[in-house]
Amino acid sequence: MNVEEFLAKYKAMRPEGARNWVMPGGDNESKLMIIIGHPSLEVLEAGDLLEGPSGVELQNALDSAGLKESDYYLTTMVKYYVGQTGKPTTKQIEECAAVLDFEIEAVNPKLIITLGAEPFKRIKKENAKVTSFLGNITDCPYNCKLLPNWSPGLIVTADPTQRPVFRDIFMLAKRFMEDRLDYTPFEKMVVSDPEVNKAIIQAYIA
Predict the structure, then answer these.
(1) Measured distance CA(148)–CA(20) in Å, rounded
(2) Helix, strand or coil, per DSSP, at residue 176
(3) Rounded to an integer, what is the distance from CA 102 to the centroid of its chain?
(4) Which of 14, 34, 24, 8 has the alpha carbon at shortest distance from 152?
(5) How confident is the model over 58-76, as a mean pLDDT?
(6) Which three-class secondary structure state does DSSP give residue 135?
(7) What's the mean pLDDT in 70-92?
(8) Rounded distance, CA 97 to CA 123, Å?
């Protein structure tokens, strides 16, 4: 499916009278898919998912990993601004579920990176914690691999100390996409110590 056909189908799935939907970015033929929770007001105003403080944080992480625009497909779980709470409701997630499923089917990714808790739970299809899987490549119901990461908004507004981990996970993704990653299959373990999380990620990319 070429980009014109893809975007035409994407736009056709927008419900009549729906709020302003943000368009995806990157390359729909890339096999690396990145899913943000929802667009910020800055993103909606600019029409670009890499605008605003969170967008800049994400762009910097992509640059540090050597990922170009042609290397990834970037989209959102919820396609419109969700309000000042910053957390989408179940109804908002369900409103956009069909189009996200279409995107995943059309892109047919090798790896999905989810940014934040809600996209991770949506793709994993279980009420799992990001901290239990952070930096680990695991299976998901979409017949591809899943790699959870922090939301860029968390780095910007709450905990900038997580920036190295946030960036390292994109480096991990690049190595996986290039088949340069040796790793053992994921085995779930509960990790609550951020320093242990850092050590796990560094062990992957060393």
Answers:
(1) 27
(2) helix
(3) 16
(4) 34
(5) 96
(6) coil
(7) 89
(8) 10
How many angstroms separate the CA atoms of 206 and 197, rounded?
Answer: 14
Q: How far apart (Å, rounded) are the C-alpha atoms in residues 40 and 150?
A: 16
If you search the block for the tokens 């979409």, which residue do you land on? 142
Identify the sign of the CA torsion 182, 148, 104, 42: negative
CA distances from 168 to 148, 162, 164 (A): 12, 10, 6
What is the Cα–Cα distance from 1 to 126, expressed in whole angstroms?
A: 31
Average pLDDT over residues 174-203: 76
- CA count, 13 A, side-chain hemisphere, 1: 17
Q: Where does the pLDDT of residue 183 fall: very low under 50, low under 70, confident under 90, or very high at 90 and above? A: low
> What's the rounded Cα separation, in Å, for the pair 137 and 184?
10
Tokens of 30: 């890339």
Rounded to an integer, the average pLDDT of 31-46 is 92
- Helix, strand, or coil (residue 154): helix
Return d(Cα 206, Cα 198) in angstroms, integer. Answer: 12
Mean pLDDT of 173-202: 77
Question: What distances in angstroms separate CA 32 from CA 108, 122, 147, 166, one per listed residue?
Answer: 9, 17, 11, 16
Q: How far is CA 98 from CA 13, 28, 75, 101, in A?
A: 8, 17, 13, 5
Number of neighbours of residue 184 by Cβ within 10 angstroms: 5
